[in-house]
UniProtKB/TrEMBL annotation:
GO MF annotation terms: penicillin binding; peptidoglycan glycosyltransferase activity; serine-type D-Ala-D-Ala carboxypeptidase activity
Pfam families membership: Transgly, Transpeptidase
Lineage of producing organism: Bacteria, Bacillati, Actinomycetota, Actinomycetes, Micrococcales
GO biological process per UniProt: cell wall organization; peptidoglycan biosynthetic process; proteolysis; regulation of cell shape
Reactions catalysed: [GlcNAc-(1->4)-Mur2Ac(oyl-L-Ala-gamma-D-Glu-L-Lys-D-Ala-D-Ala)](n)-di-trans,octa-cis-undecaprenyl diphosphate + beta-D-GlcNAc-(1->4)-Mur2Ac(oyl-L-Ala-gamma-D-Glu-L-Lys-D-Ala-D-Ala)-di-trans,octa-cis-undecaprenyl diphosphate = [GlcNAc-(1->4)-Mur2Ac(oyl-L-Ala-gamma-D-Glu-L-Lys-D-Ala-D-Ala)](n+1)-di-trans,octa-cis-undecaprenyl diphosphate + di-trans,octa-cis-undecaprenyl diphosphate + H(+); Preferential cleavage: (Ac)2-L-Lys-D-Ala-|-D-Ala. Also transpeptidation of peptidyl-alanyl moieties that are N-acyl substituents of D-alanine
Domain Penicillin-binding protein transpeptidase: 359-627
Entry-linked Gene3D superfamilies: Biosynthetic peptidoglycan transglycosylase-like, DD-peptidase/beta-lactamase superfamily
Organism: Pseudarthrobacter niigatensis
GO cellular component, one term: outer membrane-bounded periplasmic space
Keywords annotated in UniProt: Carboxypeptidase, Cell shape, Cell wall biogenesis/degradation, Glycosyltransferase, Hydrolase, Multifunctional enzyme, Peptidoglycan synthesis, Protease, Transferase
Family: In the C-terminal section; belongs to the transpeptidase family. In the N-terminal section; belongs to the glycosyltransferase 51 family.
Domain Glycosyl transferase family residue range list: 70-257
Presence of the UniProt keyword Magnesium in the record: no
Protein name (Swiss-Prot/TrEMBL): Membrane peptidoglycan carboxypeptidase
Amino acid sequence: MLIKNTLWKKGAAFIAACVIGGFLVAGLLAPAAALGSTVAGASVSFFDQLPSKLDLEPPARKSQVLAKDGSVIATFYSQNRTPVDLEQMSVFIRDGIVAIEDARFFDHGGIDPTGILRALYVNAQGGRQGASTITQQYVKNVLLLSPPTRANTADNTKTDASRTIGDKLREMKLAIALEEKYSKEQILQGYLNLVYFGNGAYGIQAAATTYFGIPASDLTLPQAAALAGVVNRPAYYDPLTEPEHVVGRRNEVLDKMLQQGYISPAQHEKAVASPLTLDVRNTPHGCTEATAPYFCDYVQRLILNDPTFGADEASRRTLLYQGGLTIHTTLDPDLQQTAREQVKATLPATDPLQRGAALVSVQPGTGRILTMAQNTIYNPAPGPGHYTGNLTLPEKDSNGHPLNGAGGFQIGSTMKPFVFAQWLNSGRSMATVLDGSVRIYKAGYPWKNSCGATTGTYDPALGQTPLPNDDPNHYYPMTVLKGLYHSINTITFQSAARLDFCNIQKMATAAGIKNGHTNKPYDLSSIASLIGTQDVAPLDMATAYATFAAHGVHCAPIALESVTGPDGHTYPVPVPDCHQAIDPDVAAGVTYALKPVLTKGSGYNIPVNKEQDIFAKTGTTDGHTQTWTVGATTGIATASWFGSYKGFGPEWANENITINGKYYIGLDGANIAGTQWARLMNAAAEQYPGHRFPPPPPSMLR
């Protein structure tokens, strides 16, 4: 049973502190022969003037990022600590720490006059003896380990070697004040949650997990005694590097526990004979060790960019690394694992080719991000395949804050559905036949753009190549529908020639397409942009195709479900931001037209389960440098990309090249990007089955 302090004990301790404090100060400031009442009186006065208030702010604790099922994605901390109540600590650690550190803990009022006198005598004889009580050690640790949110005064940051008698007297007075305000149980609990156990483990819960792989409540007698011995000198009594020192110190603790009646002789004998058996569990820290490192980095940026979590980035970082946040996210851990496996199988990060592969998925109708994976290694150190930039993200968010994104890649023919959407939106039919043999567009061609000018030529007279199709057998009249699912450039240009480029741009913007570097609308000032020469981030491509899948409802992508502090405080996070951006009939027309891509069009050989109601579009840029497959069901939309993230010159072209053991004359969007897209979508089919897409109105088919 814990014994409560009485007022007379605390008063006696205070008087003893004044007297002994005066003696100590006087002993340092004047020769022993000169000691007198004046010096002693001044020392007592000095002690009286020391501060006696100590604010026990919550200790720094780790924050966790959780997937949608509650599993841990990542942990952030500056001090690996998980505070627990005293009742959640093994009785052996409670008794062991008192036995070895402060046998009279339950009797004194914050300082131990007997211990001080003993220490003075031992030290005067040339020995080494400490006199700090657990309460004093608690005060010292509060001052040393307090979060940066408290002022970092010189007193807070001094080491043992630089601490003066004045510092020690201050600790003594603060210890006395602490005992006036808090119970012994609260002080012991606070101390065990704060103190450092070495190897990055702060507090008993982290120590028990780090060294033995168990919670503090499950510590056995020999385990608890070992940890109780570590706190005295964590480097010297390091269980990982100095196990013999630890066993010796552990046995000292056990001896003290036996002497003080905490354990029986039989318990003592058995514990002393026990080997030091460790089960080391390192707590992953930061995004480098996260299960979804690039998604982790994205979540980190969302916190650091948002004023909700602090006035500036420094305060937000402090909150993230010390505030004990629980961050629930939208990530599907099972599907994320599939995505990671696919991108790594596509091309290992260390392959000499050094190409990138990425997958990102969102949920139509909510915008929730379900997967975010790439084949590179999240590591800032130089090395093959090491890259911390996020291949799926734009460079900045909508407010101009950095997202650490690559900024996107040229999207090729995945741009064509937006031209097609505006074709339908203008009241035209997808059954209209256009001349796919038209390949020459000379200077001065009357392109219409009510937002500005659109220029560009395909003119042999100027030494230019006529507008090419990927397939040389499709230069003939065909319907706009067939032109889309076969990905015929000449049909896309003939469509655009009858439309206002400004409206095409507005259609793309409404769906979610934007420049990945500037966040400005997709640039259609050049006719080449019709076939995807602008950079767009894969996340925005997935979001745009999800807009079609959600019957024209655009939802901004979101990654955070909730953010909660350790005290239960809930921080506001973005809720699904959805609105009807495209006419539902137009969206129905686009999904109708893109389904044949997977059965008889440019993606017919993509190995997706074609029994589900699903659509997609492939895309390939000049030199086959960037390749895409983007598509969706009503349950999930995914953008898949494979290409170069390190450069865009001829050396990065994917032509006459062997990738992952397979030779390609020219890589197409349906090949690698299409395969990893299909495997992810097949894996998602059961959990995100979706529904049948509505048919377009008959007027669009006539």
